[in-house]
Write a structure and sequence with these properties.
Keywords: Membrane, Transmembrane, Transmembrane helix. It is found in: Membrane. One of its GO terms (molecular function) is sugar transmembrane transporter activity. It is a multi-pass membrane protein. The chain is mostly helical. It has one domain: Monooxygenase. Helices cover about 75% and strands about 0% of the residues. The protein is elongated and about 50 Å long. The chain starts with 5 loop residues before the first helix and ends with a helix.
Length: about 90
C-alpha cells in the first residue's frame, strides 16, 4: 500500500483538520487549569468514537484513518486527564 496517493493525502489533510479541532481547548485548559466548562461526557464519547475509528482503520488497512484518529485519541485522553487533575472538588 502506497502512503502518498492522492486519496491518502486528502484523507490525511481531512484527518489533520478534524484532529486538531480540540487542540485549542486542550491548550486553554493546560494554561488556565480550568475545566469547569468541559463536558466529561462529551470527551468520553469522543474518545470512544475516535478509538473505534482507529480500530476501523486497522480493519480496513487505512493509514490516514489510523493516524488522524490516533492523534485525536491522544489529544482527547490528555484533555480527560486534565479534567481529572484540575477539576474543582465540591
Amino acid at each position: 500500500m502506497e502512503l502518498f496517493t492522492y486519496e491518502n493525502i486528502i484523507g490525511i489533510a481531512a484527518g489533520i483538520c478534524t484532529s486538531i479541532a480540540m487542540l485549542p481547548q486542550l491548550i486553554k485548559v493546560i494554561k488556565t487549569k480550568e475545566t469547569a466548562d468541559l463536558s466529561v461526557t462529551m470527551i468520553g464519547v469522543l474518545i470512544v468514537g475516535v478509538s473505534l475509528w482507529v480500530y476501523y482503520g486497522f480493519l480496513q488497512n487505512e493509514v490516514p484513518i489510523i493516524l488522524s484518529n490516533s492523534f485525536s485519541v491522544v489529544v482527547n485522553l490528555t484533555l480527560l486527564i486534565c479534567w481529572f487533575l484540575f477539576r474543582k472538588k465540591s
